[in-house]
Amino acid sequence: MAVAVPNLWPETLKPVTISPIAVLRTQAAHLKERTGGLLEAHVTTRTFQRWKDEENRPLIAEHEFSITAPRLGYRRGIFTVEHDYPGAYPAVLSSWFLKPVGHLKEPIDEEMPSEFCFSQSEFLAVVGKVLQSRHMSSLLESLIAQINDASDPDADG
Predict the structure, then answer these.
(1) How many domains are contained in the chain?
(2) Which domain holds residue 88?
């Protein structure tokens, strides 16, 4: 009698997986669309060598996700994502926006909070946690209010 060998591969394994950079670029486009262009997000990528392999290639990719308000000349880095290059997961997302509400100051003597994301679903959850945080909502609403005040000739009284 033959014994059936079970499929031991993860249920989450799918033929289509989205890379961190694709997720970030898509979220940048969504912010511009959602705010009618008042706010924009930008993704800047660099590769660097933390150590060298035998082929002397860059081994780390770092993506910085930042928010801009072009009418105000404002720019703020929101988080960084690091992962092996080439590669995508695991990815490490670091952001002060991961701190609890009321603790957003960026202390000099403290490391920025980070979360490890071993899969696309974990990465989407952590990015969503940052983008939907109370800190983020406050920042975005404040920027839009400032843009509206600057655009309203009656705002000064």
Answers:
(1) 1
(2) 20-147
Task: Kindly state the tokens that stand for 89.
Answer: 């997961």
Contact 62, 45 (CB under 8 A): yes
Is 134 domain-assigned? yes
The pLDDT of residue 155 is 54
What pLDDT, in 10s, does the model give residues 74-103?
999 999 999 988 889 999 999 999 987 665
Q: Is 69 helix (H, G, I), strand (E, B) or coil?
A: strand
Cα(60)–Cα(143) distance, integer angstroms: 33
Indicate the pTM of the whole model: 0.83
Which among 59, 29, 57 has a CA at the least distance from the CA of 43?
Answer: 29
Alpha-carbon Rg for the chain, nearest whole angstrom, is 20
DSSP 96: G
Q: Find tokens 């994301």 and name the residue.
A: 117
Are 58 and 41 contacting, i.e. CB atoms less than 8 angstroms apart?
Answer: no
74 in a structural domain: yes
> Does the residue 115 lie in any domain?
yes
Taking only the tens place, the pLDDT of each residue in 125-141 is 999 999 999 999 999 99
Q: Quick check: is 5 in a domain?
A: no
- pLDDT at residue number 148: 94
